[in-house]
């Protein structure tokens, strides 16, 4: 039966000119009165003008009259800019491409132009090749070119519309086009991308009938398709057929084969493919090495992958490709194989390779977690000695580790090295080091860094001063914290929530609760609203001082002020009530906690269960334990079970205690097998 339509009419009708279009037209008429030359100059400078013309009914005449002359000088770059701005309206992008293509193949075939058009059609498409669109293009004296068809087909492939691409392909003669190798390649690649490998093979087999000869791109698209499906033996057959046709496989062919063999779990064959690639004189790229190394780790696991790849690298002494080592090193570090990573670093060093800052930082990050700190410092020192410059993050990591070990002299040494390397380039970089020192209780060192900061021409900001106040407060040095607060005010800063919370915390540490509460009340005068952390500091302090009622008053005030309490707001009062053996009040607070939608943590559950067991209220303890087990976020531990087992034993329920012990053993066995 003869078809009555040229192509499926899936494209919506073109919208009528909107009010915005009318405004644009009115503005263009006004500008025309000021002179034709000025209008041409403005149009050339603004791609938005061209886009607005494309939205009008007589778009072709309008854009041709204003932009035909300037376009010859503006070139493809102007078309790319206009396509990017019109990306939300893919139909306008098609119109622009059709019009610009009239001015030469350097517009139609420009890679950047086609990429910009393809991205617009993919992100906001699909734009289908309807009879209305074909008539519109032909009505302007233009044609659906082979280049435009290929861009459309590529976008359909990215959108998973392989079936529609094949429908259009068979109707090419009605568009005045005949199949070429480029069109076949585009349809085959689009089919593969959409997962329709069978349809791609069908077109591949039809190519000779249309006088089209497959090329390297054709075979690569098919190799990619079968490798993605895990049919790597078929990929090898295609490569042999390719070579038999006198087409030499390129780096993309071999890279896809390597990746395909790894995904199929045949890592040894992937290594063989790479060796064959080198024998054939095809130079592997970074992508090839990445595919091999990541694929072997993914396929074989860490230990076996390390053995195979190490053996392969050692058996190819002529292979001095930095990318192979770097990718191998990256995988070792990400899998916490610090010893092996350091060994590889030494091998690279012997071959004359010095790691870059980024890769060295990845290795050190792994080594700091798995190796002795002294050995890590030796690695850093050796790297510096050989001319390397560790990055800011590497120094911070080492300094934090040294401070946690109380090795202050070495930390100072690396701080000095950071200054010499010029790594302090902003207030933010200084603040990171100051924060690191204050958290390690080295506030005096932090103050020295502030002096260096000021001498280097950087003024402390609010973050700097708040960090110092927090550091002093943590140590209970309220006098020093107040001195920093005075400096803060003198520099013209206003105290914020962090300033007040840090001061309140310092006053609580020194048991100056009245002053802490006065500071809390003074916040409103400065226009600062307390947050949940501010309340928690005071609640915890009053509970520690035995004034639980005051803590409960603060908790109630917190709710009235519209601040949602968290688990820490409840834990301190619950613990205090349990210590005072006021279990009913603790249980009521636990119930309030659930009612407010605050999820208890393991500390909450363990505290309450132990207190109930101590009071031999075992049934209530079991209910809470059951609630704890039903929570997907909290895992009960053996201490929780032992509290219940001990309480059951004390009241003579030995069989039930034994059942709980068996339950605990089964749970531990399950966790062990999962690990």
Automatic annotation (TrEMBL):
Tagged with keyword Hydrolase: no
UniProt entry keywords in alphabetical sequence: Repeat, Transit peptide
Originating organism: Urochloa decumbens
Domain PROP1-like PPR: 175-313
Pfam families membership: PPR, PPR_2, PPR_long
Gene3D superfamilies: Tetratricopeptide repeat domain
Family listed: Belongs to the PPR family. P subfamily.
Domain of life of the source: Eukaryota
Coiled coil: none
Each PPR repeat, start to end: 180-214, 215-249, 250-284, 426-460, 461-495, 496-530, 531-565, 566-600, 601-635
Alphabetical list of InterPro entries matching this protein: PPR-containing_protein (IPR050667), PPR_rpt (IPR002885), PROP1-like_PPR_dom (IPR033443), TPR-like_helical_dom_sf (IPR011990)
Protein name in the entry: PROP1-like PPR domain-containing protein
